[in-house]
Amino acid sequence: MDLAAAAGAEVRAAAAGVVSFSGLVAGRPVVTVIHPGQGAPPLRTTYLPVTGTVPVGTSVPAGAVIGRIAPDGRHCRERDCLHWGLLRGERYLDPLALFGAGAARLLPLGGDRRDGQAG
Prior knowledge:
By secondary structure, the chain is mainly beta. The chain has no helices and ten strands. The protein is globular.
């Protein structure tokens, strides 16, 4: 899920957990939080491009600052954004499920939307 965000903005943990990764993946900064007690394998949230501000192994409550948006421009084209993911094992899930709300809407590749807005 892509969320509009300005470079330098604080990023907060969506749910309580433990920071399990903070570093570069394919040259982009990523933070991952594992959420124990959510089934097996445990749920994990991913945040990118985010420069972590919390050491790996730190327990964080929901809403704790875990990093800041890094300037990117590659994922959301001309603007910075937060790409937020939820996984169980290798399977991607709708991150809104953490809150029992709605369903994510997928856009076609290339951002060609029928409502006339850029994707």
